Amino acid sequence: MSSSMSRQLGFALRSVSRSAVAGSSKQGLASVAPRAYAVAPASRAMPFSTARTAFNSAEKKKEEETKASGEAMGATDKDAGAGNGNDALQSQIKEKDAKIKELQEAILYGKADYQNLQRRSKDEKLLAGDVAITKLAKDLTSSIDILGLALKSVPEEMRNAPKDLDSKDPRRVLADLYSGVDLTSKSLLDMLRTHGIVQFDPTGEKFDPKEHEALYQAPVPGKEPGSVLDCSKVGYRIKDRLLRAAEVGVVQSA
After folding, report:
1. How far apart are CA 243 and CA 190, in angstroms?
2. pTM of whole model > 0.70?
3. Are 18 and 39 in contact (CB under 8 A)?
4. Domain 198-254: CATH class, spelled out
5. Residues in the chain, pLDDT under 70
6. Angle 71-75-80 (CA atoms, 0-180°, nearest 5)?
7. Where are the transmembrane segments (predicted)?
8. Domain ranges in the chain?
9. pLDDT at position 8, please?
């Protein structure tokens, strides 16, 4: 359609040129323009106008089609872009949620590990303190045993002296010495007790090889076989652990 209109436009222009040239050759340059416009046939102007109108209509229609096609493609691209954008956003949200869950679990595991570490450190610290004091405690228990033997060597009737006795009287001196040794022994026991060390005397209890050391066995009528008859040395525990076993005599079964 565009090529046909171009040919018609060219034909009209050539016709006008021929008329102008013919007029100028007969009457001169001064009368070219008026005579050209005056003698121009109406039938020659019509093809140019028609072609121009058709050309403009075709161009306008083409522009409208192009615009409509572009708008349709733009809308499609926009919808496709929006869909792809939503999919990408949902994917990012899922990745973020998974990362948050992973970090929360890591925090919980780290907190649990830290609490376990604190508990183990506390237990190890207490155990180290118990181990450090064990040797000293054993030495002190040996000293307490010696003080106990000294106290037992004093007859019971001589452990207390009458108040009217002279301070230099041997009975008064022995009674005062006994009181001093007894106070010293009790002071050492109190000091050990502050560190979780206590003594125990299993006399009359059932023999336990985990906490008792049997020195002898003897049949005793009226006593339960396998029970502790006598305790030569008391035992000691340090915070529910055995520090020293008690040395005992056991009733032998018949």
Report:
1. 16
2. no
3. no
4. mainly beta
5. 1-56, 59, 69-85, 254
6. 150
7. none
8. 2-80, 198-254
9. 54
